[in-house]
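Two proteins were folded this term; both appear here.
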Amino acid sequence: MIDPHKLFQLEGGQKRRKLALTFGALERDIAGIAEKGTEYDFTSMSREEYTKTLVRIVLQDPKLSPDAASELEEALSAVPFDERRACNIARNHLLALIGTFPAEWDLVIAPHSPASSGGGVVSERDFYAGLSVYAEDIRSPFNVGSIFRTAEGMGLERVYVSPHCTDPLHPKAIRSGMGCIETMGFERKSLDELPDVPVFALETGGTPLKDFVFPKRGIVIIGSEELGVSPQALRRATYGRVSIPMKGLKASLNVGVAFGILVQAWIESL
């Protein structure tokens, strides 16, 4: 964290960049997930007052639009004062002035609702036992990360990846996975190595989503972006095949989006 008095010594562009970085660090501190060495540690003022001071500095920026200033003033005068919201608004307006915008993996993930200990950050995953996904030959690391993020967020127990699936530890997968790959972990298995549980496939030509009887435990196979689920995987999916009805001209969904729709329906059926 930088002393507010030092910010006045910085020039416009440098000041905006430093403020944007500081607001990002503040958001993480407020969320209870501050990176080591970036925790709020000023003893001369509370973190709330520090945040308000930085917002007032942003309000002095001559390039700030009237609408942006109005939004910041509203956040500053709110009772109770929402530190995290004020940080987020200020940071976004600063990034717009700088000429860049936050990518999805720059955003702060909110912790779960407060637990009995640990400052509101859940240390153990809660999941639906026995629900897993098998990612077969997914090529895009961004899609792999998205699959992990959905699986973790919706409460699947495991992620399996095929021998030829893109490495989930690829930097782009790690980015789009937003920490979920590290949280969940994964097992690389061939179709023959999958556990002896109900296995079904998400693929065209199957039972419509609303009519499919989902298993209480099992593995769903999702296929590659170009080829879909392989013939070998369809044979392994002895429990059946489920499809998402579509009306569009292309009748096509991104594999990560399709997986999200499928998982929501599966969870609702339990």
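Next, the second protein.
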Amino acid sequence: MSNLKIMKNIANIARLCFAALCLLASAVAQAQSNELLRVAVSGVSHAHLNDVTSRIGRGDFKIVGVYEKDDNIRSHNGLSRHVDKSLFYSDLPTMLDETHPEVVVDYGSIYDHLATVEACAPRGIHVMVEKPLAANMKHARKMEKLAKENNILLLTNYETTWYDTNTEARRLVNEGEIGDITRMMVYDGHQGPFEIGCGKVFTDWLTDPVKNGGGAIVDFGCYGANIATWILAGQRPVSVYAVANRQKPDKYTRVEDDATIVVQYPSMTLQLMPSWNWPINRKDMHIYGSNGYIYQKNGKDMILYKNGKEKSVVSPELETPYNDSFYYLKAAVRGDIKVNPYDTGSLENNMLVVEILDAAIKSAQSGKPVKLK
């Protein structure tokens, strides 16, 4: 056999080996992706803990550890019926070191988010917190620094991220269906945490100006700031002006229960109306443009007005993993999807959200607009 033929055979064998290695690597990656996501829980006092309990056993993740510093709450919480006692810990670092989670989901107070990131980031453990990202800008900046230094995902979960209508509204805006946006009005809230029966464990910190960072402004103002930042692709506001009220001072003695926040951008105005005093539960939004408007009524129903006519819009259902917080979390942690800058859960988006909320609180206290640098 000639040297040329031998070299060709060697080259063919090398190509076959490389292809086989690629297939093997792909199979290994697929197998790893199919494995249950190892999730630990930090704090169990948040009413949104139901997001975890309602999905346990679904087949995409497993709880490997639960941390809660309060002895009584650690013994009596929504996860107690689903997770073995041996997986509950009173010390966060110990829980992390013994259970080795891929990601920690935080269901404690907003103030405690920083401590969770301080423990997880140096260990290379990703974190998803419930909205908003942080109780104040000081905490947010520390969390951002830790996440970037340790190359972890730091995600923020919002119920409204998984609304079909919000994604469809953004698509319609991006495709110019209503022209240039001139005004957005976002309404979020309910009758009040006491009125709708939120438990004492939750309301003890939710109505605390330190542990929650505020009242209705933080609890519900974050939704509209988050969606607007996403739709506007991270555009920075010029100023924030807010008026805060205590319409039920006998119930909410330490924080505001109602607010109106005007966020001014170079070419449009965002109006946020977070409240614990709506007569109904609401998470709806008006987007006005130069040629029409969108009314997002809830997660499924929406109205589009253009060319002098109003019509109902059927929003396409979001595809997996973009339709569920834990499907999304697994895909992001495993690298199956990319978290883009200013996506609703992204760090970039939620740093700006906290900045807007921080400015709103300062404005309500001073009675003057706060300019953003």
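Residues 22-31 have pLDDT under 50 and may be disordered. The longest helix spans residues 3-34. These notes refer to the second protein only.
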